[in-house]
Known about the structure:
By secondary structure, this protein is of the alpha+beta class. Helices cover 39% and strands 26% of the residues. It contains eleven helices and 13 strands. Strands 4, 5, 6, 7, 8 and 9 form a six-stranded mixed β-sheet that branches. The protein has a four-stranded antiparallel β-sheet with strand order 11-12-10-13. Strands 1-3-2 form a three-stranded antiparallel β-sheet. β11 and β12 (268-274) form a beta hairpin.
Amino acid sequence: MRADRLVATLLLLQARGHVTAAEVARELEVSPRTARRDLDALGMAGIPVYSQQGKGGGWRLAGRGRTDLSGLTGPEARALFLVAGPASSATPEVKAALRKLVHALPEPFREEAEATTSAVVVDRAGWGRAAGVRPPPPLLDAVQQAVVTGTQVRLDYIDRTRTATSRVVHPLGLAAKGETWYLVAGTDAGQRTFRVDRIEAVHPTGEKVVRPDGFDMREAWRSITEEIDQRRSPVRARALAEACVLWRCRAQFGTRVQIGPAGADGRVDIEVRGHSVMSLASELACFGDTVEVIEPDELRLELAEVGARLVARYSPAAPPARARAVR
């Protein structure tokens, strides 16, 4: 958190040339004592910050404070506001501090940085299970630049069938789903979604993007994910789960489970999704009687058949299978 404050304090100095501890405290919502400590830390770090006592005193940057001492680049400025955006997983304190930077950013970066907060959606949950961690795709910066500047680009793209295409698109927004980045763009065939890690090249055309009236990236991404979830996991089931196995449900199903309220008997209403009745029954069978499926009936029947097969296999009356000799 302190690193974010120091960057914010430096950029305030850069924009204004002169600040008081009270001004920094008010802008960053910290105490005057913390603001003074951060200003002193900048000086000790080698930044040419010096203090003046008396009337009109405060802290100043050498050289009138207009030099880009932070070395902040356009992509770095956009990255800061991506972290500060409403969909990010940063703490409210970090978001609040980073949002203060918009008032102090150098003018060339300000509009792009502000655009990032509404043009980029970060959905930390992956498709199904919890997402892992991997480096961002190589062309993410180029795609993000096109989104926030509203510039049409020609994409060289490899689709899921390994077919190569090249087309001019209107970048409308970016979304991160777990560890995978997607570009939402307008095309001659309507709105399309492209995986950024399948983009081979990005060629700006210099033409401005034509945005559909009323387009909202957050709403567009919600509709896209609902459609994909329905396609990937069309079977939905309602069940009652013992509270003690909810953590296992989350680990097993990831984003395919929705946790509802607890009932009078202490069991929790959940909804789970799966690719098919058979596959969902296989996943639920490991919970035994701690999860009771209420609907659909087809899934209840499949679970009953799974149970019957297990009883037949493992009943004391059933002969054990002969172990094959290992050679």
